[in-house]
Amino acid sequence: MPPTERLLVRDHNLDEKAMRESVASSGDSRDGIRDDELYFEPKRVYRRSTDSSSRSSLVRVYSENERANFDQVTGSRIYDDLKHRPIPSDGKIAAETEGRSLVSVGDAQRSRKRRLSLNDGRYGDMQDEYIPDLDFSEAVLHWQSEDSASPAVLSQKLRNDSSNATPTRFPGSITRTNTWSTDREPNSGSVSPNSSYVFDSSHAQVEPIPLPNASNGVSMITPLSASEVSKSITGPGANASDVDPFKHGHLASSFQPRKVSRRKTSVCESYNSASSSLTYLPDNTVSIIAELRMTPEEVLELIGKLPHDFVYMPYSQRKKVILDLIPNKDYKLLMSVIKKLMLKSTRSSVSISKNSLPAAAATAKSRHGSVASQFLSSFSPAGVTSTPSANSVRPDEKGMEIMGYSLGKVIGFGAWGMIRECHNLETGSVKAMKIVRFRNNMKVKNQVLKEVSVWKELHHQNILPLLQWKLNDDYAMYCLTERIHGGTIYDLVISWGEYDTSKIDLVTRCKLTIILCLQVTSALKYMHKKYIAHGDVKLENCLLEKQSEASQWKVFLCDFGMSCHYKHCEAFPVDADSDSEPLTNLPECSYTQLSPYMEKKKIAGHVNEPLPFHRSRSSSGLRHGSRMVKFHKIMKNKKLTHDDTPLGISSLPKTYGPALTSARIGNSSFPSLRQIASQSTALTPTMDMTSPHQATDEETRAVGPDPHSHIGSLPYAAPELLEPSPPPLGPAADIWALGVTLYTMLTGKLPFKHDYEPRMRAMIASGKFDRKALETVCRVTTEEPDVTRRERQDRPRFTGLYNALMGCLASDLNQRWELDRIETSLKDDLMKLSPLYN
Ligand SMILES: Nc1ncnc2c1ncn2[C@@H]1O[C@H](COP(=O)(O)OP(=O)(O)OP(=O)(O)O)[C@@H](O)[C@H]1O
Where is the composition biased (Polar residues) (predicted)? Predict the structure, then answer.
């Protein structure tokens, strides 16, 4: 069998695929290992010798732990990594498993057990995969012999590889213009139908920024700085703009020493090695870029389009983003090269644990001013000096003028754009400009039109104001707003740390949480009175203007990208002034979401047509309620706890599965969602896109528009939104998200968080979270043995805060509190505190 065939492992087996997804998503992408495992280093060895490129090859790089499983000289397996037992030298086990993939044997039990193990983190970095017919010893010997090959030969080889690559521009690549004269107001512009991107989602619906202390033992990875990337692209001492690597072979020669020394190190190791100089592109990047038939500029351009928190996204989301942006390339190769360019595992590999919060806090800055932001901002034309058209300018780059303001530095990043500081050309006053670049992507454009249509209606002291906006019809939307200087509540919570090692005393923590959340509550009340649901309430979307007195701090709710109008049934007023009206029957009310089409019309001043996607009373509410009850019953009967259901949903009836697992949304029970989602406005990237399915017309009719499209950030998603047919977005979802926000402020950790998405969904659906932590912070528990009676008397109990939070996080919509009640309860606690603490 030719060597290339020996290395070829086809990805037919669904179990294996699921396993792969499971491994990728259960593993934290920050560990810098998982994605790279898709490539087995000898692939290049073989490719070089045969000059063939087998894109479909499923090969991988070994992590150091995995490598320890093999004899480095003979390449034979030493340990059976499922059982951690030495393998007999006669190779019995190897023979046993020969010819089949370890995870593709179709043995569901074994596969499940393995996933369980991975989930438990016990074998977290032992995700092995058996490659049929691979002669490891031969591969290793070949590998070693190539180590001694002369650098010149390798260099020549690389040059050949590179010159064979025909750089092609990927769809949607930027056409640069030197002038910017196409600004038009939205009502004058028509949306170009010539979208060359294929985006399934016009809103990233991004995961919230992970709290650095959310998982232990995760190595801290920081993106390369702009200069490091620039250097790594150009090589030391090179004039970036002069370099056309594929023409002149500069890259090959620049990277030659690195490539030679690389042989004995894993990808991660190479970053960590003492000699690792970031002036070189990591390892096999050149050959990967060549294989992708892309130029480095195109790769950089692609990186510039990625969401700010791309590197922190779960594998499935990253895959989706890549496929959306550039569907015609090998996403695995792309993910590998992007990761290599974007990440630098610091040599010290800071292990983030409860005890290392200061380090984590220092590193995990908010998006504004973060290393990631700076890194990404380096991909604006001003930052990328290596682009051929270095003289060209883009309308959103620093120094450009828009609406009488000069654009300044980047202060934040969103899913599809950035936020720049800007200065009034006449007065010099400082503001902020949110720039959403859609270019010719209709969906993103429609989404931002929708955002503006909602945002411009909002005038409240705790809502970031939209001062002016301007649409550059075929490029971007510009939104002028106030510049807020205090970061976000996310930053604040990071600085506080977790409750058990809290940097501020818990009483102050509770008090500040109440003060700040009362302002968010006020903003939400205002929005709900206008029948607008925010849809993405989270720590990161609460900007903070600090004053010398903490009690004077001001919150501004921002980001209306997920916001939408809902039509409310008069019989069940939401947030009525009456004090404690429960949200009884709320889901029965008929909400209406405006389609992007309608939003566009509205913003252009042509509203008042019948609204699509109308849901009748019966369509969601009661059905939803009874389903939840049924689901809880099943959970109870089957005794499904977080701990005994590592897969979250494996033993649930199919009907309930889709609510909990993206994989199932993608295939079995609700197969048509994939197709529907691709037609609808926003597709939640939490959906698994690995199992394409063509829906029949009947299926499409039965299911309707993507029901999960209003999930902003999964950890903040209300359980009803995870239902197979969730109610449309309404105030109740905001209230749940407010509860998640409150909880996180108080405890320093998200109530529902798991790296493995289906499990997180199961946690949300079950509504179970760590109440003990909350009781401790709010001091509602009676058990405080180490506290004297006197101390107990002095230390106030935050019963109102505790109750309000529990009211927000009531899974049962009938039990979930309304904003007025939450407000009253929070204020009660403040009143009680006032004589003591004011
Ligand atoms: N007016 C402002 N002043 C200072 N910083 C801001 C301002 N607006 C936004 N930011 C920063 O930029 C970040 C992103 O802003 P915003 O959430 O509006 O963008 P987005 O594209 O809607 O993001 P997302 O991807 O979360 O939807 C905020 O979290 C904040 O850190």
Answer: 174-193
DSSP state of 634: H
Report ipTM (2 d.p.).
Answer: 0.97
What is the rounded distance in angstroms from the CA atom of residue 620 to the CA atom of residue 381? 48
The 10s digit of each residue's pLDDT in 691-746 is 222 333 333 333 334 545 678 889 999 999 998 888 888 999 999 999 999 999 99
Distance, CA of 139 to CA of 664 (rounded, Å) = 38
Active site residues: 536
Query: Is 314 touching ligand 1 by the criterion CB < 6 Å?
Result: no
Indicate whether residue 685 lines ligand 1 (CB < 6 A): no
Whether the CB-CB separation of 233 and 296 falls below 8 Å is answered with yes
For atom 19 of ligand 1, the residue with the nearest CA is: 414
**pTM (2 d.p.):** 0.49
Q: 336 pLDDT band (50/70/90 cuts)?
A: confident
Residue 406, in any domain of the structure: yes
Q: Which of 474, 445, 29 is nearest to 202 (CA)?
A: 445
Same domain? For 537 and 465 the reply is: no
Residues 322, 328, 331, 333: is their CA dihedral positive or negative? negative
Distance CA 711, CA 765 (A): 14
CA of 711 to the centre of ligand 1 (A): 18
CA angle 483, 489, 494 (to 5 degrees): 125
Beta partners for 533? 564
Range of the domain at 438: 398-482
Give the distance (Å) from ligand 1 centre to CA of residue 13: 42
Is the same domain home to 445 and 491? no
